Amino acid sequence: MGYSEYDMWLQGGEGLPPEPCFAAGPSLPPEGFRLTQDAEGFRIESADEAGRMYGSYALQACLKLGKQPDGSVSAPAVPERILNHWDNLTGEVERGYSGKSLFFKDGELYYDPGRIKDYARLLSSAGINRVCLNNVNVTPLSARLITDKLPDLAELAAIFRPFHIKLIIAVDFGSPVLLGGLPTADPLDDRVIGWWAQAADRVYEAIPDLAGFLVKADSEFRDGPAAMGRTQADGANVLARAVKPHGGKIWWRCFVYNCEQDWRDTKTDRPKAAYDHFFPLDGSFDANVTLQIKHGPSDFQVREPNSPLLGAMKHTAQAMELQITQEYTGQQIDLYALAVQWEEILSAAVSGTRTMRSLIGEEIGAMAAVANTGNDANWTGHTLAQANLYAFGRLAWDPSLTAKEILSDWIGLTFGTEPALREPLLGMMLSSRGTYEKYTTPLGLCWMVNVHHHYGPSPEGYEFSKWGTYHRADHKAVGVDRTANGTGYIQQYHPFLQALYEDADRCPEELLLYFHRLSYDFKLKSGKTLLQHIYDTHFEGVEDVTDFMKTWESLKPLLPESAYAPVAVRLARQLENAKEWRDVINTYFFRKTGIPDSKGRHIYR
Ligand code: GCU
User: Fold this and answer.
1) What three-state secondary structure class fits 42?
2) pTM above 0.85, yes or no
3) Is 327 a catalytic residue?
4) Suppose 388 and one of 338, 377, 404, 475 were both cysteines; which one would form an S-S bond, judging by CB atoms 3.0 to 4.6 Å apart?
């Protein structure tokens, strides 16, 4: 197939390029493909239809990026690459920064079928093959997706199906009571077991290829088995057995912690919760249950260590959960290329010999992420945040990719490969995570955000609340001691990491205040005191954003106006945000300590 034929397909194609370039590749892995080029044109080999589709996208990307097919086999690291929407049936999106829901409005399924088709193509082109459309916080309205909304949902599933995307439904653990009128949702009660089995039969009759159910139970006021004296495994297994005859699965989230802690209580330590709840149950979950574990022990913070639960259970299927929507990471106002953070997460050690990356496709059999899309014209509010969705799909397919490779591809596919544009933009995106970290999360000190909405600084917003998120700063020191002498959280890690994290002199500096309580004059490797580091990074953060604005402005002639102007507006807002963080945090610590900035810059009193 020549370029012109290919161009025609690119303009109006239905997802697959013209037939002649396909070849059977029976020995290739499921969904995998091999792309080659010879005198006759391009060839896509695959063992199945999905591989043919992914190969077509890869060919399209090669052509746009001016790359030669290298003839190697490409196959996904994990069979399930899942997107979780947090959309409510009202049309609101929890933690959504890109408009309203693409799927729901006013209690009904409400969507533009053409747009959903584009969306399905968009997701599949990034490698995503499972999508949960509704929020894990299942409202009574959304709970009805598995009853009277099923015919409508089946129509939506049919739009995704040709793109090899299967739907997942988030269900309320309390459904037997809420929808079935039973007096209990106790997972060991025969009536409840029967109710779930019937519910699954009904759902699978409407959507036979549904991937399964997603459940947030015993978490942030959601119903769950613990309230009935049952274990998380009891809860997950009743659902697993209901969907099993249909080939379905259960994704059971591990975001279980005490969200009504008293700040005076210094023994309870929220990061310990997931491991404490789930590790002892290893081996008691049915085979079609996957535990969905947030990448860090806190809650999608800018900087936190990897969850010690990931990979720890040897007899339980696990998925890593990332958050693409920028709840704590700038809310699609501030620039934040998540690929950089995810590369760090995957590169981090889990023992003396293994990294998190090496667990993907082994102990960690699926990747999931919270969506950042909505009905805004550009899907993601901030145009450059499209790169985050793309990066998730690419990394779930191939965790060995670097942020640089992924972002470079994204820029090339979106704006073209002209180096005068690509290089500066790539530089800006690669440094964006570090910049946001500088003004929000010094040395792993989390949660200094405004309560509820989580944008902008409020150093003590969560300090006396019930959410278990404290930094306990006083005039001498800051941070929570999570060593063996403190809460003991570090002991949940592999001995190799325990040794590293326990010792403040060896602990990776970016995590120092996640694990340790340190005095403001603690000396960092740079020779600076901890306090001076906090001051410096907050000043630098503002300078970085000023540089982003200059870079973006310099790229104006090379960018479409539709991309240039809205991003410029957002960068200006980011600058305001960075200044607010700088001034609030620096003033906060100056007031606590009375120690001035060694460089004599202005800190408000
Ligand atoms: C965070 C977020 C909530 C969300 C929760 C979850 O706490 O703020 O909006 O419901 O995570 O992951 O379930």
Assistant:
1) strand
2) yes
3) yes
4) 338
